[in-house]
Amino acid sequence: MGAAARSLPLAFCLLLLGTLLPRADACSCSPVHPQQAFCNADIVIRAKAVSKKEVDSGNDIYGNPIKRIQYEIKQIKMFKGPDQDIEFIYTAPSSAVCGVSLDIGGKKEYLIAGKAEGNGNMHITLCDFIVPWDTLSATQKKSLNHRYQMGCECKITRCPMIPCYISSPDECLWMDWVTEKNINGHQAKFFACIKRSDGSCAWYRGAAPPKQEFLDIEDPSTALSLSRTLCKHTHSETGGCWPRSSHSAEFFQSHLLSLLYSAVAPKHL
């Protein structure tokens, strides 16, 4: 038997072994604005993790037990979710499969957003919005009570690089990565995308409730005037103006607020 023929069984065995071994894929998540995370979640709570243990959660299709981490928590406040308190949070056993690690002992408070499992339980992954409570801005904390909910019918579109555009008036352009190279920038910390009375959406900054004139604004003249000024300073390398003039003046409102927020960074929020 030739060397090539003898190598075939070995190659087949290696191929078979490769298909049977579990893959060590890393968890991958797309960045989302905190408001998007709030709106996408079934449950949003402020809580402490008291203890944790590994538990079986049924079996896979091959009959093998499915392991999960169970956190017993102490709920401090619920911002969104069912009428009953959350008692247990479940997550995957490792970060490679999007499992979340929480400090236990009841000393560290978290904002936790995730999916409902019923009976006072919820499931979380690394793709959910889970951050230490003391890292949130005052605006973010207050927005959890009502502000974020006001914009759940709006769409927040992330801008990875300029030029970028919105396609409808119910969108807000999220510019943090372009302006600060950080998804946890000023728009994430100090802004919410709010739906107005005319059906359009626009960024609103601050912790106080939006004023009625902001919600009722329909006159696009201010946005049009500002857009002409800013257009001179937002040319792409190809000479294209951003936002493009073909967009309606109402569309400019979200663009302009996205651009202006860095120039009027909040001082007292």
TrEMBL record:
Protein name per the record: TIMP metallopeptidase inhibitor 2
Organism whose genome encodes this protein: Ovis aries
Gene: CEP295NL
